[in-house]
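It is time I had a proper look at our fold encoding. Can you supply me with one protein entry, sequence and fold together? It will help me judge whether the discrete encoding reads sensibly. Leave the record below and I will have a look:
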Amino acid sequence: MRAGIVPWLWGWLLLGYMPALGASSLYVLAPATPGCTRPDALPRARHLAMGQDHALAVLHCQRAGGEGTWQRMGQHGDALLLRHLPAQRGEAALYFPASAATPAGKTGRPTGLLWLVMVAGGAMVLWPLLRHGWRGWRRRRAWLVCTGLVRQHAEALRIRRRQLVQPNSYGVEQTGRWRREMMAFSKTVLRPALRARHMGHAWPRLEARVLARIERVACQVPAGFHGTDYTPDMDPIAYEHHCADRLRACGWDARTTPPGGDQGADVIACRGGLRLVVQCKLYRNAVGNDAVQQVAAARLHYHADVAAVVSNADYTASARQLARSNTVFLLHHDELAAFSSRLAQKHGTG
């Protein structure tokens, strides 16, 4: 139980216990028992015969019927001050001889103020509990929405992390750009989805958990290729062979070109009459325009159908713009399998 609920609970118990302490006993009276507004009038009223109602009225007394229950309000000697239940407005309590009143037991059901206290106390206790439970359920729903979107974009997140997290000269991973990418993903994908479902209030409580889930998913080994392992410290020639291995694993006849005379293509791959030229860039920083220009020229030189730049790093905005205008694909090496499938589907080379 949350700490904020405890004071409400104690207040309810206290309010409920105090009326219970003061709860009067219930009595039933014998038929035609005389009762008076003053205890000193009881001895004379008890000696009056039936039918002397005028004499009773003079003494401010009356005879009580044998029906109903009477609540004890006080006592004066051997006279009990009782009030008829249910109480009527303007009806006074009367003194009756204690010998004529038979206890009916303690109050079995709460009435009057006690009911009001119990209802109000129950509301005070249940409202925080229901509010807490409702918010917890909404946070759970929001968490499921976020994790579902992370799963949906898992492959793209893995590739972006591998593009943006690069070791510096001392072998330490630089994660600043990747953290900014996670925040951008949250801002443009997760939070709008929560707001659309009226769950935006849950984000501050979930943010740390969701970012940790994104990091865990992005660090998973990508599915598909299990050939030559990529390592950031491999040399550019080894990286070219790594990319060629990935294409061969996808069914391409891929070969690397001799260093120094490649005319802008590091890998040439053929599959079902489709020719692909690839420029491979093993960088620590974002790849710029040069790679796009080189592979565009290689496409003309080798009479290729498709040109792509493959890198372990990200691409500059200028390179992306130039690639769009020259129909050059900019890829991460983990995207080669999916890229190969798209080409096979488009050109019918499967």
In short: The chain is about 45% helix and 20% strand. The two ends are 61 Å apart (CA to CA).
